[in-house]
Known about the structure:
Elements: E1 24-26, H1 37-57, H2 60-63, H3 70-74, E2 78-83, H4 89-97, E3 115-120, E4 125-128, H5 129-134, H6 142-152, E5 155-160, H7 163-167, E6 169-172, H8 180-183, H9 190-197, E7 203-209, H10 217-225, E8 233-238, H11 245-260, E9 271-273, H12 288-303, H13 305-337, H14 344-353, H15 355-366, H16 376-385, H17 400-422, E10 434-436
Parallel strand pairs: 2-6, 2-7, 3-5, 7-8, 8-9
Antiparallel strand pairs: 1-10, 3-6, 4-5
Amino acid sequence: FFCPPSSLHSSSWVSAPSSCGPMPKRRGPQCDVAAFDSILDGVRSIYMTKVRPLEEQSLVQHFHYPLLADCDFEARPMVLLVGQYSVGKTSFIRYLLESDFPGMHVGPEPTTDRFQAIMYGAATRELPGNALASNPDTPFYELSRCFGNAFLSKFSGCEVPSLFARGCTLIDTPGVLSGRKQTEDRLYSYEDVVRWFAPRADLILLMFDAHKVDISDEFKRVIEVLQGHDDKVRVVMNKADSLSPEELLRVNSALSWSLSRILRSPESRRVYVGSFWDAPLRHGNFLNPLFESEAVALLTDLAAVPRNCTVGRINALVARTRRVRVQALLLQHLRAEMPKVGSKDRKQRELIAGIEDVFYAVMKRHNLPAGDFPDVSKFRHTLATSEACRDFAKFKKLDPRSLDALEAILSTDVAQLMERFDAIPGGGLAPAATEASPSPSVHAGGAPV
């Protein structure tokens, strides 16, 4: 996948006393992306042959989520970077790629004015957003239908021959602005675009500038969109080397407190603290070794994205299998309750009003856990308003062999996939190594803009 450059602030370690010997230099873990391809092919085959046909029959796309296509399995893992302007998102991407990329702009003012997908390619080239969204083989195909030209004029892509891009796609975003510039001057809904990317991203980096950790109302709304994806969110405080230890302690506490009021969670949020770009750290800060270890931890997290993506795809297959099983049985029960003659409309209204009883009956009859059932109010609303549910008697009859195929997925197929996954040495990750190197003195440097 990638090896975080061994030069990551390598010149910025605090000089250790000679009695301590040379300071170890961490190597970032490498990841074999191809090791997971056969597993993902297995997930796609199971979904396309056993799950998707029943999802189409059971109207899952009307009740829960869109159906998956081949491009959803072929796409590389996606990393989404979100933050206010001038927090160092583009500088961090440049560091990961180890080169400039088309459309890159760095500066203290709001420079990135568009969403940009950075992907792998044999040669560097820029791709217009309309072309990306018009290609059904890309994961961005739905953007044109969801947001139209108003957004596509502010969306672009590029391909770079980078080892990092070979393993995952990076999504650079415009900085969140304040007031009318965020809500009115943009011709599309920033929050809706982030809401579209969030479930498709495998990792979301929420980046802050150590000098401005206050969260505006506009940025708060963007962060709230990420709720429900807490396991993907990583909080990054950039430019921390320009603060004194006392200032850093206060800023870190303030940021953690502010986030706890937005991303509500019983656990405290992990914050990566450091200076995440390719320049040396500022000199004279005894916390520089901490910043180095934080950088290694973040890069290790990024290196694990393909592995975690594979696990996520298997988990998603299990979740979709359990959800479509319940969906199919609910629609089958509603179809069976419809009268052959008489007032179908009245019976249908009664079933919708008493949908809780339907849930309970299906749960008991088929011995299903309550956690597999959807939200009652949302399910009732879709039954009452969706054109696809106008006549329950027209729901397609459920083939028992389809349920048997779902049971085979949960009892056999997933276990076989996990056996193949566990057989990959180190889960696709090579253990991080250390090598002895002389400890240079700290060089002066700046924080990213």
